[in-house]
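chain below, 364 aa
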Amino acid sequence: MVVNFKVFKKCAPNNMITLYMNRREFVDSVTQVEPIDGIIVLDDDYVRQNRKIFVQLVCNFRYGREDDEMIGLRFQKELTLVSQQVCPPQKQDIQLTKMQERLLKKLGSNAFPFVMQMPTSSPASVMLQQKASDESQPCGVQYFVKIFTGENDCDRSHRRSTINLGIRKVQYAPTKQGMQPCTVVRKDFLLSPGELELEVTLDKQLYHHGEKISVNICVRNNSNKVVKKVKAMVQQGVDVVLFQNGQFRNTIAHMETSEGCPLNPGSSLQKVMYLVPTLVANCDRAGIAVEGDIKRKDTALASTTLIASQDARDAFGIIVSYAVKVKLFLGALGGELCAELPFILMHPKPSRKAQLEAEASIEA
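prediction:
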């Protein structure tokens, strides 16, 4: 029987160290994160010299433009989350995966397995989209598996004997829907009787990427003002927790209509507006939060960041949220009336069968 695995392989520039991993995306289920596992293969010279080989999980958080950096000032933090010695092997119990067992049989005595546990408090992989003409390193959170040789894990690594393989920490949508979002806002006017009421309801709380969002709008005009226009939009909220004023919003989908307007005093209006937030419609806009790898052609808008508790919020580099905002325009003197409903936008967790069908397998 032939067993097939998808394996990622990367060699150091001097070809003395080779890294094998069967995946580069690791799922964060809020309470725990999938372990990072792989195999390191050394050249015979490194084994004879008894070289010390270290593997590290590195989190790179860039929070400012590379062009704005000056002498002694860098808008980047590099954190080593996990560090361990792989060779010579330390006395520790490692529960090998099936992929590791098969690769160890195939690659021989110069192969050494490793397993690292990513902290649950670490941020998800998120990047901020930049202009097409900007070739500098984008802002965001990236992860790397770093392999190098040295006297200790704090030793300065040399480029020719170092491997850096980018990985991603991802979150998938929960299996259960939450409560149906609904809100009612009212506005009264100075020296005018009655009030204007706006009720907004979404058909559900959890949406998958590319799914149509149904916004149910009900307007009851008990005032003496006239509603001129209705606008619905999806806004992406980005919170860079390192800064006190690092919150900003981008409108990623919108629709406005004058159908049923002007809405005169004593009248009511019921309407359903449909919105589909996609990256395709925002591919040229800077500041949009996207999934961890901008170079991928199939990348999408960043998913909603799920946090176990608000106390752990400061540990997350970039927090992404989504909300539907409905706005009624009442003219120059009447002003506006706004209602806002947060919702969750995420990818569904793929089944194991779908993952195997999507992967290009190689014979192990």
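Confidence is low (pLDDT under 50) at residues 356-364. The domain at 8-172 is CATH 2.60.40.840 (Immunoglobulin-like).
thats it, cya
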